[in-house]
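Justification of resources, computational component.

The compute hours requested in this renewal are based largely on the per-chain cost of generating structure records like the one below. Each record pairs the submitted sequence with a full structure-token output. That output is archived, and it is also reused by downstream analysis tasks.
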Amino acid sequence: MHEALSEGIPYKVYTQLASASGLEKKELARYVVIPPASLQRRAKSGRFKLDEGDRLYRFAEVYKSAVDLFEGDNQRANKWLLNPVRGLGGHRPVDMISTSAGAEAVLDLIGRLEHGVFA
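The structure output for this chain reads:
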């Protein structure tokens, strides 16, 4: 995965991720902090820069974990990601994905929920 990120995640992966998550492309770009002008440039070049690809990877990792938490129910996973969560101090999981620390907090909470540890 490191090599793929270093080479630049292909733009088509972004479109597939938006489709799989049920988010509009602009919405996904906002959550992973890719400005509209940069998104247009990446669409033309066909690849994302390393830091952008890393944020897309974090989103994909959190999204997959949320879907797994809800046993494959994408709609419930989306609802959970887009609404404030008490275990994250009232923050929406999707808003925390822009940083590695935030994504780790979301993944940690998902792990605790999967194992029934709420405190």
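Residues 2-114 form one domain. The mean pLDDT is 94.
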